[in-house]
Amino acid sequence: xxxxxxxxxxxxxxxxxxxxxxxxxxxxxxxxxxxxxxxxxxxxxxxxxxxxxxxxxxxxxxxxxxxxxxxxxxxxxxxxxxxxxxxxxxxxxxxxxxxxxxxxxxxxxxxxxxxxxxxxxxxxxxxxxxxxxxxxxxxxxxxxxxxxxxxxxxxxxxxxxxxxxxxxxxxxxxxxxxxxxxxxxxxxxxxxxxxxxxxxxxxxxxxxxxxxxxxxxxxxxxxxxxxxxxxxxxxxxxxxxxxxxxxxxxxxxxxxxxxxxxxxxxxxxxxxxxxxxxxxxxxxxxxxxxxxxxxxxxxxxxxxxxxxxxxxxxxxxxxxxxxxxxxxxxxxxxxxxxxxxxxxxxxxxxxxxxxxxxxxxxxxxxxxxxxxxxxxxxxxxxxxxxxxxxxxxxxxxxxxxxxxxxxxxxxxxxxxxxxxxxxxxxxxxxxxxxxxxxxxxxxxxxxxxxxxxxxxxxxxxxxxxxxxxxxxxxxxxxxxxxxxxxxxxxxxxxxxx
Length: 497
What we know:
The protein has 497 residues and is mainly α. Helix content is 71%, strand content 1%. A two-stranded antiparallel sheet has the order 1-2.
């Protein structure tokens, strides 16, 4: 997810709430209610504007339905609130990261860092291979940092800007970025989910990573092939205006390769295991310093002055960090690229996360999450059925609990013994948890991961979900391997079946 430093307190030690008085149909009432309300709200009432507030309230309404179910099953209100508080507390780091990303985007805009990335990117990246390049670049960065979140917040923002300038669909671009970002999130030993999954299943980190490569590499290969095909078929008419865009960038800012020092410094800090919060804060401050050095007129303008003074400089940097800011340009295609929302631009996403975790907390408190997993486990009796049940549980909990960690922790605890009973080595379970719990979280608008990446990249989750090929293909790959018993390791031997 974010990185090895931002995660709930000891998630592997969290207890999964059991409530054997709650049957599966009662557990599903809040889920059905939420799906119906969200469907109407998104597809009938609000469309793309649903995340501006109405979806957040719908999640609270779903939580209210879950609470009513809990009351009828003798779950105390205080217990529900306590679980909600625990859930929201677990996202404190993620919320702070979101705010820091907003600050970073603001100072990196007025300093010219993002426009400079776009400027050089337009000259280097060929439109035909752009989408495949996005996958590879983001895969490398996420393997090095262990963080899909950091990858989106750094190179992801720049790649979205380049795609917009080239008239390449932003949904496709975001899908390519996230496909690469989650490849690294799955296999990097620096990733928190890569460490959490084997801890839940009962295997060691490097056995888990090696075993996961069997499904991950083929999935990434298919993803790259699809994006190469898409690259040859997309309309890149915007490339005819590349020279005009480059001229407009040069006219609007002072372009300098020295500006790359700031993002490189941030990436190095994260690779060196600096806390992402500290790295992003330093990156924001370095962006402010770079703005004063390279773009003094822009800083003064954002600060409400005509020339750079201490007051206009201070206000310019603070405005970029906290509220909407923009760089003046005469090129219409650059106006959206040359604007940022600062920390305030992330508040809708923060709001969504809090409401989603409220719903997930109540679902956990009333025992609905464990009831759903137990019911799925009972449906299947074959080896393939066990894998399918695990995948379904991970997807269900990503949908209902809105949290990537719970989608690993709950099924991990529920299915560990079942895998042993079938004579299956624990790395089968840990791989399945990652192939279905880790990567699908970003496909759900109200999940913390979906909300984060949508907010950072500025692309609605529903617009990129179909193009996040690696993410939705991974569960199918793990099921395909299970169905044909490819690399299914038994407890009794060290060889795969």
